[in-house]
Amino acid sequence: MSTTTDARAAAPLAARTSGTVRIVGSGLLGSSIGHALSALGVDVALADASPAQLRLAVDYGAGRLAAADDAPSLIVVAVPPDVTADVIERELADYPDAVVTDVASVKLEPLHALRARGVDLSRYIGSHPLAGRERGGAISARADIFVGRPWVVCRDGETSSADLAVVEGLALDLGATPIEMSPEDHDRSVALVSHVPQIVASVLAARFVGAADESLRLAGQGVRDTTRIAASAPELWVQILGANAAPVVEVLDALAGDLADVAEALRLPDAPGSRRAVADTIRRGNEGVERLPGKHGQNRRFEQVVVMVDDTPGQLGRLFGELGELDVNVEDLRLEHSPGAQFGLAEISVVPDAVRRAVDGLEARGWKIASTTND
Amino acid sequence: MSTTTDARAAAPLAARTSGTVRIVGSGLLGSSIGHALSALGVDVALADASPAQLRLAVDYGAGRLAAADDAPSLIVVAVPPDVTADVIERELADYPDAVVTDVASVKLEPLHALRARGVDLSRYIGSHPLAGRERGGAISARADIFVGRPWVVCRDGETSSADLAVVEGLALDLGATPIEMSPEDHDRSVALVSHVPQIVASVLAARFVGAADESLRLAGQGVRDTTRIAASAPELWVQILGANAAPVVEVLDALAGDLADVAEALRLPDAPGSRRAVADTIRRGNEGVERLPGKHGQNRRFEQVVVMVDDTPGQLGRLFGELGELDVNVEDLRLEHSPGAQFGLAEISVVPDAVRRAVDGLEARGWKIASTTND
Fold it and tell me: Which CATH superfamily is domain A16-181 in?
């Protein structure tokens, strides 16, 4: 298993997390944390309201069944948003020596609920790993889903440095980057970059339900990308959106205003500034999308080389083998099929310095380069 | 150039398009049509209002310069939407024996303009290849961008079967699938699957302009996909949206209503049916996105196998080489980097029958399978 061994080299030499970690909730996030900590040699005690789900998580190697005499130093609450506050309260009471964190994707609502009940929150630090997969559940859990992802940690005036270090240590052990943020800033941020995009994709895709087959045949890659996340599961999203309603509504209202402005400009094309209003919207969109961090961080740029590839087994192998011989590392890849054709297009992202080497080397080996971005 | 030769096997044995084809406008679409027809041995005469652009297209092999004594059988108008009607009118007058088509992405506005001027449209058939690239211009032109894509052909009562066959023959020669549609249906369809998604992506991305860096650090792949097309160029889109204003406004208004309904349900979480309204929106989004044709057509489904891959040259080569040995064809591929980690995840789409073979074979060769969709 050479690949595994090599990958593991990215893990820290010595885990910061020690003692027993109790994980309550063995869904995708809880189980993935369990897998990652277990691989680091940490004792992971799993609990779940569902015995079947718990058994599955244990069978898949996320940890052991929690025992009555466990003395965890850290408790991770990874349950659905609507029961997060209840479970945090119970865990704080049951384990008076443990630091308790949660991984819910909304941070203010559980905090308000706990404060309203007068719970002592000095040992609680809310957190949120920005990681996930399209499929949930213990079966989909993967130790690596946190690697390179942000992990928001919400400290407040009551948080001790030692407790903060425990939660940030967990994030670091799992390969994530801890980001300290207030619960308010967190909730506003995820409303903008996650919750509203989900709603937008869903309402747009919902418009296709009543459309003619013929109309949908005209759909291309653009609209497929725009609506991809509309495939997300309703149950979890109803909870998330409900728990973060105020910040979500704020962005939705602003967005509805922007859409109304575009509609107005299109309705009255001869009104002063109408064309300009439409152009400005597209231009601001250009600017906004440029600000999103890329797969390799905000400022690193790759060039694309598009290669024609036969749609037969082994062709991609030959292509990537030869790129390896040319010492060209593939940073990203997008494979485009031409339905009905016997070939596809492989769009390969490489560092700018490697474009010439890749193009010349591949052409010399008989590949057809369809295009490159820095010609 | 074995790859090229194999790919060419997908081209028709005998081109339907014959004689001289005059292409007016040597941007991305005009030049790409020129490349494809030239490769089929058709005589392509190029014209463009910009001598520099024209020279570039000729240099890149899209065709020859048009001559005064050309007698084209088919004229393709591939100019920006705002001058499309003017150019169609002029070409019909200048070449009284030619069939004239255009490739503008809006079909009703030029038709209305031409009818209002009393132009005899018996030799004009509007069309629209649903093909494009993120970059425009003759430099980005590619002969293969039409392969497998729909090409809408708008016949009307005046259209002769012989003329229709010429335009549909062009589409077929370029590897596209002709779809007959009324101009009204076409414009409504592209409003839904192309123009409104563009606006939605742009207004959403525009919201990031004023956001804090810290907030945007929380962005993941979902919002990146949702806003990817916000990177499109403003100039062309202002023209397209302006030319298709009524159908676009209709969808925008409906969408704004849908967004307002979600906002209302979130604002009044305890009102009867509020949670259900949010769930229904997500659920209808699930249903709508399922209706979009996939890369291989609407009904074919692939399974995904996710493999951990070292982020070093040659690793993907080894992976794809071994998949070839296992006789597994890679239908699609998504490469996910974990920034800061020494490895990435290759999500490989394969036909369901090949999942077991791929997983067992790769594991036997030491690869770590992170997950599969049909476990």
Answer: NAD(P)-binding Rossmann-like Domain (3.40.50.720)
